[in-house]
Design goal:
493 residues; alpha/beta; 11-stranded mixed beta sheet; 4-stranded parallel beta sheet; 22% strand
């Protein structure tokens, strides 16, 4: 225990099991979202997640003793930090979650959470809860605009949901959620905008019956999401207080989302062999067989994208000695000697080998090449002219290492190259500001087109002629989608 938690630091060596106490502010504990002793704090996170899971399993098993056929689930909450959902998913019959975007939640953020929920079991899931109108517990409880509830409901279905459910049917007369939205308002009548919109959606879903149920998404791109990395990265003290796990993952998801490339959210122990490209942002903690799995993926022809703050520590948050990125050093073909961090008002710049430039910020790895090639170099500070972005051939594949946080154009520049090398493609050949997702059943492919842009958008001409499941009318080359509008275009396989 002393070794795992490095308790010699600050003279906190343990001599008896009774000396171990829960991490707290008076002992080996927390400093806001940081901690003095990450080892004990990480194990406490694991313990709490496992303890809640044990309670769930206890209740599930009691129900199954009386009725083995009953399907058991519980309400998950997207990227909720407190519970290791990939571990929970192994004990759940079906995944369900509560989708409550705020007024400023971007469509890509909601989409990523849907894909994460689908990825927990690599199967369709249920939207257990959403509101047809407004929440009551957020800072600003805005109404969903006309058509927005319908668009968000179809977005869930597009990303793998097999249900559209609401909390609540009827607004409560009292209690802390009496102003939470409901299908039936306090007025108690069906003559409301919200009731009419829910009824309309219900009729549409009923009209095409079960044709989309159990259809699946097929992706050649994957992004690793790992709760233990989530905890460890945000517990560590340094290099930058602004370095948060979910926003780092979101940056990479946004690239695939905006290019309409289907992407799966994966656990670190997934089977990577079905993918052409994997992104593993801030893979701070490398444990178990992660090194071997990633090496096998690349050796067999895959393209792997790694970033700064990867391969730093093992399972107890103790650093791998011998140089960063630790067990990923041979795979990446680099050695990171130092990690710089600058305040938000200061930036550096990447000069790419093709002559283009991009701003970068947050952290700046000081990289030595050990077989990799430099795709970009810093242009400022004492490390001007040293590598900032690299590519390493490993077996039949390649590893891209991004040693700083590029601006959006810079990250797109890098990922364009990685995507082209891996030969993953958009669902459509042309660019579009529509969100486009695809699900497939045995004999049909369903293209979900949703307009979150706030303005009219043309339907891609490559999809013309396919029949809209909602209206029964084939799509025409001149069709447009109004804001919040949806089409589901069916294509026989």
């Amino acid at each position: 225990v002393n070794e795992a938690w490095n308790m010699e630091f600050w003279g906190h060596a343990l001599y008896d099991w009774d000396e171990i106490v829960l991490p707290n502010a008076l002992g080996d504990g927390f400093l806001g979202d940081r901690t003095n002793f990450a080892g004990i704090s990480l194990d406490y996170r694991r313990f709490i997640s496992d303890s809640y899971l044990d309670c769930y399993k206890l209740e599930r098993d009691i129900i199954h003793r009386h009725n083995p056929e009953t399907v058991i689930t519980t309400n998950l909450m997207g990227t909720y930090k407190g519970l290791d959902y990939f571990k929970w998913a192994k004990e759940m019959d079906i995944i369900s979650w509560d989708n409550y975007p705020a007024y400023d939640t971007l469509p890509a953020q909601t989409a990523m959470r849907h894909d994460l929920m689908r990825g927990l079991k690599d199967r369709p899931f249920l939207i257990m809860e959403q509101t047809p109108s407004q929440q009551n517990w957020q800072k600003y409880n805005t109404l969903k605009r006309p058509g927005q509830m319908r668009a968000l409901s179809y977005q869930g279905i597009a990303h793998g949901a097999d249900s559209v459910q609401y909390f609540q049917l009827r607004r409560s007369v009292g209690g802390c959620e009496k102003f939470h939205g409901a299908v039936i308002a306090h007025s108690g009548t069906e003559n409301t905008r919200v009731f009419r919109e829910v009824a309309q959606l219900g009729k549409e879903l009923e009209s095409f019956g079960t044709s989309t149920l159990r259809s699946e998404k097929h992706s050649e791109a994957g992004i690793l999401f790992d709760w233990e990395n989530y905890w460890a990265l945000e517990y560590t003290s340094g290099p930058c207080a602004d370095l948060k796990y979910v926003p780092q993952i979101q940056q990479y998801y946004d690239y695939f989302y905006e290019h309409n490339i289907s992407v799966d959210m994966l656990p670190v122990d997934a089977d990577f062999s079905r993918y052409k490209i994997l992104c593993a942002p801030v893979l701070y903690m490398v444990r178990g067989s992660m090194k071997e799995s990633l090496e096998a993926f690349v050796r067999n022809g895959g393209v792997l994208v790694l970033t700064y703050m990867s391969g730093i520590v093992g399972a107890s948050d103790n650093v791998y000695l011998g140089g960063y990125p630790g067990p990923l050093r041979d795979l990446a073909g680099i050695w990171v000697e130092e990690i710089d961090s600058l305040p938000p008002e200061l930036h550096n710049e990447i000069h790419f080998s093709d002559g283009s430039h991009a701003e970068c910020n947050l952290v700046y790895d000081q990289i030595h090449l050990e077989g990799a090639e430099a795709l970009g170099e810093y242009t400022r500070d004492f490390y001007a002219g040293t590598p900032s972005v690299t590519r390493n051939r490993f077996g039949n594949g390649s590893v891209y290492y991004i040693g700083t946080q590029p601006d959006k154009a810079g990250l797109t520049h890098i990922l364009d190259q990685a995507a082209a090398e891996s030969q993953v493609h958009s669902l459509i050949p042309e660019a579009s500001e529509l969100e486009i997702s695809c699900r497939e059943s045995g004999d049909t492919r369903f293209y979900y087109l949703i307009n979150f842009s706030g303005k009219e958008q043309p339907v891609p001409k490559s999809l013309a002629g396919k029949t809209d499941l909602i209206t029964g009318v084939p799509s025409a080359a001149e069709d447009v989608l109004m804001p919040w509008d949806v089409k589901i275009l069916a294509e026989a396989l």
